[in-house]
Design goal:
With 300 residues, this protein is mainly α. Helices cover 66% and strands 1% of the residues. The protein has a single domain, classed as MetI-like (MetI-like fold, Orthogonal Bundle).
Length: 300
């Protein structure tokens, strides 16, 4: 979509605003560069940049030790993603359900577990539930709280995709005599999931970072392995820099995938492609007698 087509979204920047933006960007870049140089000089003065303090991390045994932690991080991410995705989709569908009890129950679940910190849920799994005889393995003590929290976040993402679709999509199916459940599963939900795929990939990157909370339950993930390693080699800064780079690479790949999907044109049911952002809306159609009264919540 061209800049002219997007001009309805915002006012075009003036020459003065563009100049101010360039000046602000230059100031921020200079400030960050100065901080990096100052930090590097401070580390160099204390010998933290000496080659002797970095070469031990290239040892195959240490790399293998950290690799086991990375494998644990990816395992926990995969388990949570597989469990949280269908649960989040079910919650999203329930939140737009026509039955008030189902809609309100799903809404309460989503709002509660989007608010509660994940760390608090992990503490419940670690300290509270074992008193009542519920004491799962370390993997589940980490993945169950992450599944609950991420399912609530995924539900809101999917619900946003559902309500963003034109009402004509569902009305067309209902006019053909299709049951409400079939309309949702065969027409509405596939289009909604296609529209929010970039946001779901971004949520996956956030989930991967949340697995670093596994050190609380002593689960073998990347950050926990780094903590154990620093207690032996005393290379605190060097070890955490390497771990940070690993997180940057993995999360950067997921972010790049999300950006690529976000810029990809979407395909309509008729086979035509449209840009990621819609064109300016036309005149609002007249209301028909079958439309719900003004102010009534649309179940889609």
């Amino acid at each position: 979509m061209s800049a002219h087509e997007l001009s309805f979204l915002y006012d075009p920047p003036t020459t003065r605003s563009r100049r101010r933006g360039r000046v602000a960007t230059t100031i921020v870049v200079v400030a960050i560069t100065g901080l990096v140089v100052a930090a590097a000089a401070q580390l160099a003065s204390r010998g933290q940049l000496d080659a002797a303090r970095w070469t031990p991390l290239l040892d195959p045994q240490i790399l293998s030790y950290l690799g086991v932690g990375l494998r644990g991080t990816l395992l926990a991410t995969a388990v949570v993603a597989v469990a949280a995705f269908p649960l989040g989709v079910a919650l999203a569908v329930g939140k737009v359900d026509r039955r008030p009890f189902v809609r309100r129950t799903c809404a309460v679940f989503i709002e509660v577990f989007r608010t509660i910190p994940v760390l608090l849920l992990i503490y419940v799994m670690l300290f509270a539930l074992p008193r009542y005889g519920i004491n799962p393995d370390l993997l589940w003590k980490l993945t169950i709280p992450l599944t609950i929290a991420n399912s609530a976040a995924i539900a809101e993402i999917v619900r946003a995709g559902i309500v963003s679709l034109p009402r004509g999509q569902s009305e067309a199916g209902l006019s053909l005599g299709m049951p409400h459940r079939t309309v949702m599963s065969a027409i509405v939900l596939p289009q909604a999931l296609r529209a929010v795929t970039p946001s779901l990939v971004s949520q996956l990157a956030s989930l991967l970072k949340d697995t670093s909370l596994g050190f609380v339950v002593a689960f073998t993930e990347l950050l926990y392995r780094a903590q154990v390693l620093t207690s032996f080699n005393r290379l605190l800064i060097q070890t955490y820099v390497v771990v940070t780079l690993v997180y940057l690479v993995v999360c950067g790949l997921l972010t790049a995938l999300a950006s690529r999907l976000r810029g990809r044109p979407t395909r309509t049911p008729g086979g035509h492609t449209t840009d990621a952002l819609p064109m300016a809306p036309g005149p609002r159609p007249e209301r028909s007698p079958s439309d719900p009264p003004t102010g009534q919540r649309d179940p889609w």
